[in-house]
Design goal:
Layout: E1 2-11, H1 17-27, E2 31-37, E3 40-47, H2 49-58, E4 68-76, E5 86-88, H3 109-115, H4 159-166, E6 187-191, E7 196-198, H5 200-212, E8 217-220, E9 225-230, H6 234-244, E10 252-255, H7 258-264, H8 269-276, E11 282-286, E12 300-304, H9 309-315, E13 321-326, H10 338-344, E14 351-355, E15 367-371, E16 374-379, E17 389-400, E18 410-419, H11 429-445, E19 452-456, H12 462-474, E20 478-481, H13 483-494, E21 501-511, E22 517-525, E23 530-536, E24 539-540, H14 551-561, H15 570-578, E25 584-585, H16 588-598, H17 610-618, E26 630-632, E27 636-639, H18 641-649, H19 654-680, E28 684-688, H20 695-698, H21 701-707, E29 711-713, H22 725-735
Parallel strand pairs: 2-5, 8-14, 10-12, 11-15, 17-19, 19-20, 21-28, 23-27, 28-29
Antiparallel strand pairs: 1-3, 1-4, 2-3, 6-7, 6-14, 8-9, 9-13, 10-13, 11-12, 15-16, 17-18, 21-22, 22-23, 24-25, 26-27
Helix pairs in contact: 13-22, 14-16, 16-17
Bound molecules: zinc ion (2 copies) and fe (iii) ion (FE).
Fe (iii) ion binds at residues 483, 487, 507, 510, 689-690, 722.
């Protein structure tokens, strides 16, 4: 007989870990105890050495669906206690909290079966869940994760639920959000006049009826409220756009199942797996044929599958697809409270399908592409947050504040980094407020008290202002990190890279160390330091920010700089000459904007990056030609003037020209990276920055780089856009010795 104590760290609470262990321990013929601690789970076992060793060997490979074992610490040889059987002990409460919290998880197969089984006591109950599924992060007010500290605190369990909760053999053993029609939350429906329909089924049917009539219904989800309407009639979606003031941005669509998704999009095996995964993100899928312009003006449609029991019931077996877009007015945070919905969405929604389980934390749907069989996050939010990223080197308590337009922060502690959920544009006051609240929420949940802060170099970012203010108030050091360096280190951290890399970092804008705007960069270095090896010929932005909307201004400047004929614009001319309100940018996004306008694809952008998105959508996939270009000077600048000249005189059609434009960028990047590699001896290359949301480039550039002897890495856990930048800031901060 021997005694073995095992500490297990990771997501091991609220996921059915203890009952699972109960079965494992018994099947190995062992005895002992288990309890939750604030850093995970503690097992104490006794039995024959061989049996204990076998148990320990299997442990990492055996866990319930939602559990994630991060670390196992065995301790042999404690005094024998003479355990009989296996007992679950009350939780151990310690001073320091180290528990991880599970993200929200889509409805599991078992619950789905019960939901649709007329004999089950939760038949058609929209809040069915179990230890393997349901809301988590979005209902938690505080830790430890126990019912009173969640939105379910105000729903005392009925005797039936209580029995399941305490039955270790039951799938709902210690499932905190567990409930049933007798004791749990309920739906209600309000029409535009405020007439209320109570009762789950009646409310549901009212909403379904309204949707079938082509009306817009606000539907409360896991991390916020959606606006839903049917997809087939462009007049319906047009009305939604008008009311929501969302002129041209694509809508996400919820499809009843994979079969429905395949009616409008191509779905390969990997994409199907991601769509059906427990995260249930919105996956950007290629349209089957051009069209569906009322849903998305580019080549992709964002599709997700139902992830809550309410969604399953809402779609029933007749609604194949619904537009499901975050309920908000342009650029404000997603609406998530009932009262707020009635107040803010009154001019938008014709009806409201709400319920009395409160959402504690906003969490938008995640959004991704599928690249190389893996998720390529554009927005890392529901289903991910607040799951951490494990880093090799331990870190202190650190905070990185991110950028601004696509805000996101990161907190770290020990070997964990916690990226925030999607936050949005900080220029909006409510978003800024939510940003500050979420930082405070994360700090409380994970017991983090920052000892140093990182932020962007840009003095006007509101995240920078927050960081400075906090650093002064709390007397903690502040490190400002160059934007593109942070992108590069973010991609390194995403891939667990420590040694120096070549970073191809392309985005719209970011402040450089020389006070100009950067964004088409080839950097060489690591988290400690970097060199700006290459860039692109600066583009004058006539009228500053206005040029990112009126793309004709950029087109004019590109043509003029390339020595081509341009319309007479004395005002532009004088701004160009004086430099007044005419900053210069080496942003790749701006080159895309200018090209989109020159090619007649888009001249007035209604959202950031629209020119690039539409240029990509217009491109002929099979075009292999490219335009001439030059690389000159130090940093090695991409001189795009030969390309612009060739493009303008190219007799080919727009689709060919758009493709050739991007092929030129790909060829240029390969050239730059190869030269950087030859000079530095470095062979690892990372791709980051918002421009790498361009799938045309992301699906072609890596192969070319590989053919030049480089090893290529891209993102798979955080976004390549500014939302992912905080992870890189944190990496730089920790390298400074904090
Ligand atoms: Zn379940
Ligand atoms: Zn109940
Ligand atoms: Fe950026």
């Amino acid at each position: 007989m021997e005694h073995l104590k095992i500490e297990i760290h990771g997501i091991v609470q609220g996921v059915g870990f203890r009952p699972f262990m109960h079965r494992q321990v018994r099947s190995h013929g062992l005895c002992g105890t288990i309890r939750n601690s604030s850093s995970g789970v503690e097992l104490e076992l006794e039995g024959e050495r061989a049996a204990l060793e076998r148990f320990l060997d299997e442990l990492p490979h055996r866990a319930p669906r939602l559990a994630l074992i991060e670390r196992i610490e065995p301790l042999w040889g404690g005094p024998l206690q003479g355990y009989e059987g296996f007992r679950i002990l009350p939780s151990l409460v310690e001073k320091e909290r180290n528990t991880l919290i599970s993200p929200d998880v889509c409805i599991c197969e078992d619950c789905r079966r019960e939901l649709l089984d007329p004999k089950d006591r939760r038949y058609r109950y929209p809040f069915i869940n179990c230890t393997n599924c349901g809301p988590r992060f979005t209902i938690i007010r505080d830790v430890p994760y126990d019912r009173p500290l969640t939105s379910m605190g105000c729903f005392p369990m009925c005797p039936d639920c209580e029995r399941e909760y305490h039955d270790i053999e039951n799938r709902r053993y210690h499932a905190q959000p567990d409930c049933c029609p007798v004791c749990g939350p309920h739906l209600f429906f309000l029409d535009a006049e405020g007439r209320r329909t109570d009762g789950d089924e009646a409310a549901l049917q009212s909403a379904r009826e309204m949707l079938r009539e082509g009306k817009i219904v606000a539907v409360k989800g896991l991390g916020g409220i959606h606006l839903a309407c049917t997809c087939d009639d462009p007049a319906v979606t047009r009305r939604l756009r008008q009311r929501k003031q969302r002129d041209e941005k694509p809508f996400a669509v919820m499809c009843r199942d994979l079969g429905c998704a395949r009616k409008i999009c191509e779905v390969d095996e990997d994409e199907a797996r991601i769509l059906e995964s427990s995260r249930r993100p919105i996956v950007l899928l290629k349209k089957r044929a051009p069209g569906l312009l009322h849903l998305s003006e580019n080549g992709y449609v964002g599709v997700m599958l139902p992830y809550t029991p309410l969604h399953v019931l809402l779609m029933g077996d007749d609604l194949d697809m619904l537009v499901m877009t975050s309920a908000n007015l342009s650029d404000t945070p997603i609406v998530y409270k009932n009262e707020e919905a009635l107040e803010k969405l009154s001019g938008i929604a014709d009806g409201f399908l709400l319920h009395d389980r409160e959402i504690q934390t906003r969490c938008d749907d995640s959004l991704c592409f599928c690249v190389d069989g893996k998720e390529y996050p554009v927005r890392r939010s529901r289903g991910w947050a607040p799951y951490p990223i494990r880093v090799e080197q331990g870190r202190g308590h650190l905070l990185a504040c991110g950028a601004e337009q696509k805000a996101g922060f990161c907190l770290s502690k020990g070997s964990f980094v916690f990226p925030s959920q999607h936050i949005g544009d900080l220029k909006n006051y409510e978003t800024l407020e939510n940003y500050e609240q979420q930082i405070a929420h994360f700090e409380r949940l994970f017991d983090i008290r920052p000892e140093a802060i990182a932020c962007d170099l840009h003095p006007d970012y509101l995240s920078t202002a927050y960081a400075k203010e906090r650093s002064e108030r709390e007397g903690i050091p502040l490190v400002q990190v160059q934007h593109h360096h942070a992108h590069m280190v973010s991609c390194m951290a995403d891939n667990g890279l420590q040694d120096a890399v070549i970073g191809l970092i392309w985005d719209g804008t970011g402040l450089g160390t020389d006070g100009t705007i950067w964004g088409g960069e080839c950097l060489v270095g690591d988290a400690k330091s970097y060199e700006r090896f290459g860039s692109l010929r600066p583009i004058p932005l006539i009228g500053g920010d206005l040029a990112t909307k009126e793309l004709d201004r950029i087109a004019w400047a590109l043509l003029r700089d390339a020595g081509l004929e341009t319309a007479e614009r004395p005002l532009y001319e004088s701004m160009l000459k004086s430099g007044l309100n005419c900053p210069r940018s080496s942003g790749m996004g701006r080159l895309f904007d200018g090209a989109a306008a020159i090619l007649g694809i888009k001249s007035l952008a209604s959202y950031e990056g629209q020119g690039a998105v539409l240029l990509e959508a217009a491109a002929a996939e099979d075009e292999t030609g490219a335009y001439p270009f030059e690389l000159t000077g130090a940093p090695l600048r991409f001189d795009w003037r030969p390309m612009i000249r060739a493009m303008v005189f190219d007799p080919a059609d727009t689709a060919r020209k758009a493709a050739k434009f991007m092929n030129t960028l790909i060829a240029m990047a390969a050239e730059q990276a190869e030269l950087a590699s030859r000079q530095s001896g470095i062979t690892d290359a990372v791709l980051s920055g918002g421009s790498f949301q361009n799938m045309y480039i992301l699906r072609r550039l890596p192969d070319l780089l590989r053919s030049r002897g480089l090893k290529v890495y891209h993102h798979s856990r955080v976004s390549c856009n500014d939302e992912g930048i905080a992870l890189g800031q944190l990496g730089v901060l920790s390298k400074k010795g904090y």
